[in-house]
Amino acid sequence: MTRTALQSALTRASASTFARPCIAPRRRWVSTLEGNPHIYVFPDGRSLSNKLLTLLPTSPPQSDLAIGSTSAIPPTPHSLTENNKFLSILQSVLKQHAHEDPNVIGQAKAFASNAGSTLGSGGAFFPQSKRKGSGYGGGGAAGGGGAGGASAQGGAGGAGRGGYIHVSDERAPPDYGRIAEPEDIFGSLEVDSEGNFVDGNGNYQNSGTYRIVTRNGL
């Protein structure tokens, strides 16, 4: 769901760019990233040694909507330079749609369980506490998938209290009862004592720690 919404947002952004009179973008056969068939790989016109990674198959690619630019395939935390505009679009899509994800909804309901039992997806809820959240940015430990569907990570249940649940990608599911790594967490949603999202949408908060590529991949 989240990936589809993200691709739609990028397509709309691309269409607005081409709204002015111009030659229609060409479409041709393009390669995809091994293990991630929804991610397209194009030459980066700004650097002969780099490749652009994008969720859009349109050629030529729009660098300002790309996931990022990498000097190695497959990309590594050190080879990828993240595109901050893409991350901004990703976060705006999550803010609008994360609370609609079936996995997130299920975790929110489990969170409200009076039993306060550990949830199978791993991670932890934070009753009565709130997480605070982030041209091209630096690579370093550079971040999902987006490409992957969102999933809430949970630990101890809410036991009748409200709190916060993490929304993270699925590239490295944490062990049972543990929280996801900060670099895998998109953000957090607020849940009330009955497992409903506060204000109807959970008031999504960007973690500021998510990275497109980690040692566990993209």
CA-based shape: elongated
Strand content: 15-25%
Distance between the termini: 18 Å
**Largest sheet, described in full?**
5 strands, antiparallel
> Stretches where pLDDT falls below 50 for ≥5 residues?
18-27, 114-156
Using DSSP, what is the number of strands? 9
Radius of gyration: 18 Å
Q: Strand order of the main beta sheet, please?
A: 1-2-3-4-5
Helix content: 10-25%
Q: What's the helix count?
A: 3
Q: Whole-number average pLDDT? A: 77
Structural class of the helices, strands and pairings? Answer: alpha+beta
The SSE string, one letter per element, is HEEEEEHHEEEE
Write up what this structure looks like.
The chain has helices at residues 2-17, 84-97, 102-111, and strands at 31-33, 36-43, 51-54, 68-70, 80-82, 151-153, 163-168, 185-191, 205-206. The protein is built from 3 helices and 9 strands; from the N terminus they run H-E-E-E-E-E-H-H-E-E-E-E. The radius of gyration is 18 Å and the shape is elongated. A hairpin with a 2-residue loop joins strand 1 and strand 2. Helices cover 18% and strands 18% of the residues. With 218 residues, it is of the alpha+beta class. Helix 1 (2-17) crosses helix 2. The protein starts with a helix and ends in a 12-residue tail after the last strand. The strands form 2 sheets. It has a 5-stranded antiparallel β-sheet. Strands 6-7-8-9 form a 4-stranded antiparallel β-sheet, with helices on one face.
